[in-house]
Amino acid sequence: MPKLKRSNVPRAVLAHLLDRVRLRSVSVEDLKQLNDWMNSNPTVPEGDWFKRFPTFTACGEDALVKTFLTADQSPTGEEVI
Q1: Which pTM was predicted?
Q2: Phi then psi for 25, rounded to 5 degrees?
Q3: Long-range pairs of 18-27 with CB within 8 A, sequence gap ≥ 24
Q4: pLDDT reading at 2 higher than 90
């Protein structure tokens, strides 16, 4: 199982994430929760996965976070606890 990648993330992925932060109203507090989780150096499944937070869901593929969903949107893949 890969470790979450935090550096050398492709520019297009970063641009997409920033766009989703704006469009889905991910707050600074939400981003702090994401950062705390990422600082724990989590292991994520290969393929599609998601991590639920109180007000949003982070979705990824392999070692990368790929998008953010609102709490009422349905993610696909394996849930990370």
Answers
A1: 0.90
A2: 50, 45
A3: 20/67, 20/68, 21/68, 24/56, 24/68, 24/69, 24/70, 25/70, 26/55, 26/56, 26/68, 27/55
A4: no
